[in-house]
Structure formats: structure tokens, C-alpha cells
Amino acid sequence: MIIFKYHIILIELKYMGLFDIFKKKKNISTFPENELERCLLRGTNNIEAQKEFYQKLLWSNLYILTMDLVDSNMAEQNPEKVTVKAATFEGGQVPIFTSINRIFDKGIVKEGKVNYIGIKGQDLFDGIKAATFVLNPYSEYCKEMKPAEIDDILNGSIYQKIDANARKVIAMEKFNEIFRRANERQKDLIYLNEISIKNPTSAEIVALESSITDFQECLSIVPHHWQSMFFMAKALQRLERHTEALEQFEAAFKIELENHFIPMEAATEAMHLKDLDKALFYSEESLKRNPNDIASMGNHAMNLLIALKDMEALMTIENAIKLAPHDKINNNIASIVRDVIAGKRQRPTFEEMIVVPSRSFS
């Protein structure tokens, strides 16, 4: 059962025979059945139809549910001020309809069970201030309109906002195409999983550099798109432009606060640059974001070993092996850590540590 609440509103309008709608009308299910509804339908993918819809919304009759019938004689005697008790949903939203038949869509509201009245859209919005309206709540073509949107409609700024939104849509379509192209250019050329890739050929270098250019263009459209930063960094990493790669990983790290692959990759680039402090910081951050990730544990253990924190390195890698006893990479790291602690081998250098197989984003 639909539960309505009612509040009294004062609608100021000129009487134009609007109150004769209480006569019994046949429920026609066809949508759209008037120009306003046709604009609503076309407006889903047509900018000009959206503008026309808002224009017609102000000048067309909209229908609200009321608590009592309005006395037509009283309305004619005092047409400037008519008191209406308008129905609202429990949440306070005001249901409004583009035609009488929209009230009875899907049979949720039964004919004869509610009263309704038609009021010109501008008068309705002027009469009910700061309300959220739900247009055609029982129709497939429904729309919620919050107070800010109603204000935009009344003061005319909605049309500039439609144009601005259209420009954003065009920009995002361009962005998506460039981002897709950049990823396609990188296909099979960046480090994924545990695959070792040979030095890039001349053609592959061109493809990687083109992907970098594409990701830069993506960022000119969406400056905080961390995925573009990440994959740009992956291309720079493959080209051994480690300073630039680290800069992009760090930028992505500040924006995306949950993905643990970003600090893991940043730690790897820091090791390439022999920046142990940053390497330790990012490998630890990777573990904070995903405490049970065995790849992050292995990377952090190697960084701890380079930093002379042997027991922490041993504890970290042993925890990783408990989680995945047969992981070849971590078993290799564990062997290195144990041999260093036992004095059976020299502590690995930055260069040697980078050669140890590592995992990357997939």
C-alpha cells in the first residue's frame, strides 16, 4: 500500500479551468501522450530535447495528488490564491506527474483512491519551495528533481549546465578512446605477473613512448586519473626511465589510497634509484594496504635485508611462506635472507636485489 503524507501549500495562480480535471478520465497506458512526455523520452540522449523538456516543464500542466477536492466555485471567486494540501512520500518528496495517466502507471495507485489537481509547472515550483520532486514515480521514465535543480530551472541556469555537461560527456568519450588506445599499445610490452621481458625493440620503444603520450593526454582531461599515472609509469619503467616512473607511481599513490600494487611498484623504482628510505617506506605501505599479500611480503623482506634489518626481514619472509609454502620467489628470497644471516653469502647489493624476480600489477 502506498502511504502518503500531506502538507498544506499556497499556490498562487490565475484560474484557467485547471480544476475540471476531476472528471473521470479513461486510463491510457501509452507513453508518451503529450509534448512534455515526448521531450522527456527524447531527452535521455538528446541535448536539445533536454532543454525543450525544461522549457515545457514550466509551462505545461503538472499533476499533484491532493488530500481533498478543490472547490471549483471557490477557485473561480478567488483565482489568485488557492490552498492545496499536496501529498508527499514518507521521505518528504513530492510526487508530480506529466499527465493524469502517469498517476496510475503499473496500477500501483488505483483510480478513485486519490484526488489530483493540475497546476502549471512554474506556479507549482514557486508554490512549493525547497522541495524534492519525483516526476512520474511509477513510470519507467521517472526523474528526481532536487531543490538545486528546481532553482536552476526557474532562474534559467539549467540550460548553461546542460551545455557544460554535454562538453564533459564529449571529453569523457575522447578520454575513454585515448585510454583504450594507450593500453592497446602497451599490450605484452609491460611487466605483468612474473614474466621476464627482454629489452624492447625499436618498434616496441615507439609503442611504449606513444602510450606515454596518450596517458599524458588522458591526464590533461582527467588530472587525477591514477590509472593513467600507473600505466604511464609502467611504460617508463620498461624504458628504464626510473626517476619519471617513480614520480608517476608516487602521484598515483597520493590519489588512490587502497591499491597495494602502487606502493609495491614505487618501492621497486626506488630501489632502481638506490633510494633505500623510499623503498622501505613504499614496501611497508604496500603491506599496510594488503597485509597478507605474499608478493608485498617478499619485496619488503628484501628491502629490510638491504637496510641491515635482518631479523625483521626473516620474520617477514617466513610469514609469507606460511601463507604460501610452495611460492618459488619467496622461497628464493628466504634462502638469501637465511644465508646472509648465517654468513654463507654476502649481503646483496641494490643491483643484485633488482635482479631477484619480482611480481607486478596484473
The beta-strand count equals: 7
Structural class: alpha+beta
Helical element count? Answer: 16
> What is the CATH class designation of the largest domain?
Mainly Alpha
Strand content is: 5-15%
Low-pLDDT segments, ≥5 res:
6-28, 71-77
Following the backbone from N to C, one meets helices and strands in this order, namely EHHEHEEHEHEEHHHHHHHHHHH
Query: The CATH topology of the largest domain is what?
Result: Serine Threonine Protein Phosphatase 5, Tetratricopeptide repeat
Mean pLDDT: 85
Distance between the termini: 51 Å
Biggest sheet strand line-up = 5-2-4-6-7
Helix content: 40-55%
Q: What's the Cα radius of gyration?
A: 33 Å
CATH superfamily of the largest domain: Tetratricopeptide repeat domain
Write structural notes for this entry.
With 362 residues, this protein is an alpha+beta fold. The protein has two domains: 5-156, no CATH class; 165-355, Serine Threonine Protein Phosphatase 5, Tetratricopeptide repeat (Alpha Horseshoe), CATH 1.25.40.10. Helices cover 54% and strands 10% of the residues. The strands form two sheets. It has a five-stranded mixed beta sheet with strand order 5-2-4-6-7. The protein has a two-stranded antiparallel sheet with strand order 1-3. The relative contact order is 0.07. Mean pLDDT is 85; it is low at 6-28 and 71-77.
